[in-house]
Write a sequence for this structure.
């Protein structure tokens, strides 16, 4: 009887070891699947954020160009000659004693 028990023990120990290895492999596969899904999801979110960032950078450059134009305009408005030119062209004003004529525009 003791001989049968010793013969059976390595077999049951062997099957227990196989069961543990299968369980470990199953857990590792589950973790790898979870990690893969997480990486896939994060890469999609990263692409969305990158697209939004590029759109914002385009808007930023447009705003910076507008700002530079406005700064130039403010600097030019401090010049009295430029203000006088604007008053003559846009507001149809003239100097005192000056006569302005407006000609009607004809369409050909």
């Amino acid at each position: 009887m003791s001989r049968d028990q010793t013969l059976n023990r390595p077999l049951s120990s062997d099957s227990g070891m196989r069961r543990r290895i299968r369980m470990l492999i199953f857990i590792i596969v589950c973790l790898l699947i979870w990690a893969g899904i997480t990486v896939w999801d994060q890469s999609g979110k990263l692409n969305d954020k990158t697209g939004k960032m590029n759109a914002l950078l385009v808007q930023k450059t447009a705003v910076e160009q507008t700002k530079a134009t406005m700064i130039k305009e403010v600097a030019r408005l401090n010049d009295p000659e430029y203000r006088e030119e604007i008053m003559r062209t846009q507001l149809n004003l003239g100097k005192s004693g000056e006569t302005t004529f407006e000609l009607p525009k004809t369409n050909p």
Observations:
- The radius of gyration is 42 Å.
- The chain has a mean pLDDT of 85.
